[in-house]
Amino acid sequence: MYTNALLTDLYQLTMMQGLFLEGKHEQYCVFDRYYRSNPFNGGYTVVAGLEHLIDYVSRIHFSDDDIDYLKKTGIFCDEFLEYLRTWSFTGDIYAMPEGTVAFPQEVLLRVHAKKDECLLLETCMSMIMNHESLIATKARRVRTVAGKDALMEFGLRRAQGESAGVYGARSAMIGGFNGTSNVLAGALFHIPILGTMAHSWVMSFPTELEAFRAYARQYPNNLILLVDTYNTLKQGVPDAITVFQEMKEAGTLPKSYGIRLDSGDLAYLSKEARRMFEEAGFGDAVIAASNDLDETLISELKIQGCAINSWGVGTNLITAKGSPSLGGVFKLVGQYDGDVFVPKIKMSDNAEKISNPGIKNVLRIYDKKTGKMKADIIALEGETIDPTQDLHLTSDKAPWRSRLIPANSFEVKTMLRPIFLKGKLVYDLPSLSDIIAYADEQMDSLWPEYQRLVNPEEMWVQRSAKVSALREKVLKEESLHFF
Ligand SMILES: Nc1ncnc2c1ncn2[C@@H]1O[C@H](COP(=O)(O)OP(=O)(O)OP(=O)(O)O)[C@@H](O)[C@H]1O
Ligand SMILES: O=P(O)(O)OC[C@H]1O[C@H](OP(=O)(O)OP(=O)(O)O)[C@H](O)[C@@H]1O
Ligand SMILES: O=C(O)c1cccnc1
């Protein structure tokens, strides 16, 4: 059996072998994972994928089949392949918990390990966290416009493969969805599974009314009838009303019942349907809608006064319409020469692309009175901020901008948690419902200005004075090499 140890880019393995043959593979080093700009032109990213990542790291090893395959490529020598037989992850990982709201340049995850371990983890780790954080963020954008309406994840058939469908459904939950139509995701992650019916059900009966009656007989407690197969207002809604009336008379009408609209003008049709339901005494019927929806369209439909209170979102969520990928990167920020830590920097002509050297954490400043986030500070690990002193902030991007946060008006939280120490999992994995509650809490601590879809406010993120000084020093030292 092949394993996920091969789920990597070839260059990671060739570099691992190269370092092994040069005797450098065990050099201890530190890598940061961060991203440079928010997806969807938004104001934040919701971190997701940690549980999947933990599973990957906990199980990573090379099987006999993996080694045989690598041997057959002709690229790898026997000595290196023998080394791989007993290879495993022995380092430390620190990360932001799933559901954390994060901002550009912040350390989302930090790995301390032998260099070959960092290399092998990079690709898969990035794939997992880039994907799941992207979908959780997209879902959260949908949640911010949907208010308290129900949100159903319907994307599996349009997902870019099995894994994207399954982990996408889980990420949608972290982003605030209520359930998924994806049954495997339901089984694996204990996510509520939800569903209505397809047009083929309605077409399987001589009439729409018979189709609705048969469904009501079989699933009296999950009664969302798809009303747009023939003619929504002339036939679908009246047929649904007939069935609801029959159930009401028989005393079998469930607490939650309603219709789904899947085509046409969703604002107009939903308002008309609501009027017809109210006239017939079914004013509390659910009106669900689907059809290529996303956060922009839902917001637009709400502006038009639609009467929809349940949304099925598929394609545009699961494929992250608008941002095909979260550009998270994994950069070396330092390595050990014996016992001496040597901070490292990635140079670039573009100032924003120059990395922050050193072992860092993120300190989040919350306003004590409102509980809202005020700023994030990328600080050296172990650095603290005294909340009983005034806090002076100076923007990294615009050094002429500054802010003062008065003493005793704020709280400081450290965002990275230890996940693995010396290769051992030390993190108590929270349940998905705890992750969702934490994600909701994180979003509640973000002012609406940062959540809006268009031109959101940018969170104040800056380096601490110590990180800035270290960056200047390393930049100066590196620049000397050019003369
Ligand atoms: N009131 C509205 N305002 C803006 N967009 C809407 C409105 N109602 C529906 N839409 C969106 O317009 C797009 C086209 O919908 P429409 O039902 O006309 O075409 P369709 O998807 O091709 O229909 P069908 O599913 O019958 O083939 C969909 O993304 C739908 O969600
Ligand atoms: O529109 P989405 O957000 O992707 O939501 C999922 C769609 O999947 C189903 O459609 P189906 O596959 O039957 O095709 P359709 O798009 O032609 O209705 C369902 O009726 C939704 O329209
Ligand atoms: O249950 C539904 O209504 C459903 C499921 C998947 C895709 N579209 C709709």
From TrEMBL:
One of its GO terms (cellular component) is cytosol. One of its GO terms (molecular function) is nicotinate phosphoribosyltransferase activity. The keyword Transferase applies. It is an enzyme of class 6 (ligase). It catalyses: 5-phospho-alpha-D-ribose 1-diphosphate + nicotinate + ATP + H2O = nicotinate beta-D-ribonucleotide + ADP + phosphate + diphosphate. Catalyzes the first step in the biosynthesis of NAD from nicotinic acid, the ATP-dependent synthesis of beta-nicotinate D-ribonucleotide from nicotinate and 5-phospho-D-ribose 1-phosphate. Transiently phosphorylated on a His residue during the reaction cycle. Phosphorylation strongly increases the affinity for substrates and increases the rate of nicotinate D-ribonucleotide production. Dephosphorylation regenerates the low-affinity form of the enzyme, leading to product release. Belongs to the NAPRTase family. Residues 360-468 form the Nicotinate phosphoribosyltransferase C-terminal domain. Keywords: Glycosyltransferase, Ligase, Phosphoprotein, Pyridine nucleotide biosynthesis, Transferase. This is Nicotinate phosphoribosyltransferase. Pathway: Cofactor biosynthesis; NAD(+) biosynthesis; nicotinate D-ribonucleotide from nicotinate: step 1/1. Its EC number is 6.3.4.21.
